[in-house]
Specification:
Layout (H helix, E strand, L loop, with lengths): L24 E2 L5 E2 L3 H18 L5 E3 H14 L6 H15 L3 E2 L8 E4 L5 E4 L1 E3 L6
Antiparallel strand pairs: 1-2, 3-7, 4-7, 5-6
């Protein structure tokens, strides 16, 4: 068994995901878990607040870099999620998170975010600082 395949040990209890869950991840000790939308929104907002302090000298952060920070925080808590699933989750919930995206020119860095009507648009950056603007 490789190091990556070994389950992580943690004291946190994971909730079992319902059979119909559309974004399943494995949690501590390989237990199937699911964060609900409110928990994901809280994680996205908390990560933004943290990065606003860590990158205080900057006004913006690339969305791809921001999502790597989210993935790392979730992983440190003992859970795993693929980068593609994380980006999909962030895109789906973006309109409810309250962050300000900024367009970019480099198509290699595009992350498609959904608005409140479900339309997807390409963005590259997130504004750092206050969540509401």
């Amino acid at each position: 068994m490789s190091a990556a395949a070994k389950p992580r040990q943690t004291h946190r209890r994971a909730r079992l995901a319902p059979a119909h869950a559309n974004h399943k991840q494995t949690g501590p000790a390989g237990v199937l878990i699911q964060l609900d939308d409110a928990e994901w929104i809280a994680v996205f907002r908390a990560t933004h607040r943290l990065l606003s302090h860590l990158y205080a000298q900057k006004t913006h952060i690339e969305i791809v870099r921001y999502l790597r920070h989210v993935e790392l925080n979730v992983e440190l808590a003992g859970y795993t999620i693929s980068p593609d699933k994380l980006q999909e989750q962030f895109s789906r919930l973006f309109a409810r998170v309250g962050l300000q995206p900024v367009k970019g020119r480099d198509p290699r860095k595009f992350v498609f975010l959904q608005d409140i009507w479900g339309r997807r648009e390409p963005f590259v950056l997130l504004k750092l600082g206050d969540e509401d603007g």
